[in-house]
Amino acid sequence: MTDTTASLNAAMRYIEQHLFDEIDFNELARIAGCTEYQFRRMFSYLAEMPLSEYIRRRRLSRAADLLRAGGAKIIDIALRCGYESPDAFGKAFQAVYGVSPSALRKNPAEMQPFPPLFFHLTLKGGITMNYRIVERGKFYLMGKTGYVPLVYYGQNPHTADVWKKLTQADLLVLMEYSQVDPKGILCVYEQTTKGNTQTKWEGDEIFTCVGVVMEEPMPARFKGRFDVLPFEASTWLVFSAMDNTRESQLARSTKETYAQIAEWLPTSEYEETGAPTMTWQESYDFSKPERKSEIWVPVRKRG
């Protein structure tokens, strides 16, 4: 746990040291000891904001200090903060602080700072994570695929666009072939962006699959109707995210479970492999009472 906390805080110090530079997110992930995707996702749940928003707020906070100090031109401060024009910088600054950069320069005042964040990983309130360990060989996910904008924190409403590709007849067929645990519909977000870009910003399009688990490849008669996503053999930690009948309640429970996993996992003997995490739904019928949900995380023991 100490080593993990130290690595995460070293990554946060790296951000501070390069706040006005072009941050190398591959180097940031290397310092944190995980992939860029894992670091961004962990950060979003622990800090309750996307990493990109944190960096934006820290730059604007530093900009406020520079404006009050005087000397530097507003256009130079805007460029250092990554804005192409003083107008764009001014709108962003006023949205956060309620005054324009020029007004603050003319009448320096105390501003509410946005201080740098550092992690102190503890299990809040003595939380104990209940999970089971599942060893699985190679399997396949059969269903529909698509690209959706990446959302690190909270639920991704765009996933519904992939769900809509499945007709009622498709869902009935998938449930008939859902004979392997976990039985039911799964949603997977692949950790690769469209075009295989290296940096994964909020809004980048990522590959998504909604379907059911099968031990064998897709039957030939379904080719053209469904897509298939292969998974290699892995160890999985399975966390329950059960909630009540409403979809919004289920989504809230799933988000909270993800947040607890993000906080707990660095303190455990496990680390993510980098393969996609799966969210399992017992049924596609959102009105079903006591509908269950689980989060499947592919892991390996820390070396």
Fill in the keyword field for this structure.
303 residues, alpha+beta, Arc Repressor Mutant, subunit A, Multidrug-efflux Transporter 1 Regulator Bmrr, Chain A, nine-stranded antiparallel sheet, 37% helix, elongated
If you had to describe this structure to a student in words, what would you say it looks like?
By secondary structure, this protein is α+β, with helices and mostly antiparallel strands. The protein has 2 domains: 2-106, Homeodomain-like (Arc Repressor Mutant, subunit A, Orthogonal Bundle); 131-301, Alpha-Beta Barrel (Multidrug-efflux Transporter 1 Regulator Bmrr, Chain A), CATH 3.20.80. Helices cover 37% and strands 21% of the residues. The chain contains 10 helices and 9 strands. It has helices at residues 2-17, 25-32, 36-47, 51-69, 74-80, 86-97, 101-106, 159-163, 168-177, 247-264; strands at 131-136, 139-149, 185-193, 205-214, 227-231, 234-240, 270-272, 278-281, 293-301. Strands 1, 2, 3, 4, 5, 6, 7, 8 and 9 form a 9-stranded antiparallel β-sheet that branches. Helix 1 (2-17) runs antiparallel to helix 2, helix 2 packs across helix 3 (36-47) and helix 3 crosses helix 10. The longest helix has 19 residues, at 51-69. The radius of gyration is 22 Å and the shape is elongated. It starts with a helix and ends with a strand.
Task: Put the structure in a nutshell.
Helices cover 37% and strands 21% of the residues.
Just name the CATH architecture of the largest domain. Answer: Alpha-Beta Barrel
Rg calc: 22 Å
Could you tell me the CATH topology label of the largest domain: Multidrug-efflux Transporter 1 Regulator Bmrr, Chain A
CATH class of the largest domain: Alpha Beta
Number of helices: 10
List low-pLDDT spans.
Answer: 123-127, 244-250
The geometry reads as: elongated
CATH superfamily of the largest domain: Regulatory factor, effector binding domain
For the terminal residues, how far apart are their CA atoms? 14 Å
Q: Biggest β-sheet: count, sense, barrel? A: 9 strands, antiparallel
Tally the beta strands: 9
Instruction: Indicate the mean pLDDT.
Output: 81
Give the topology string: H per helix, E per strand.
HHHHHHHEEHHEEEEHEEE
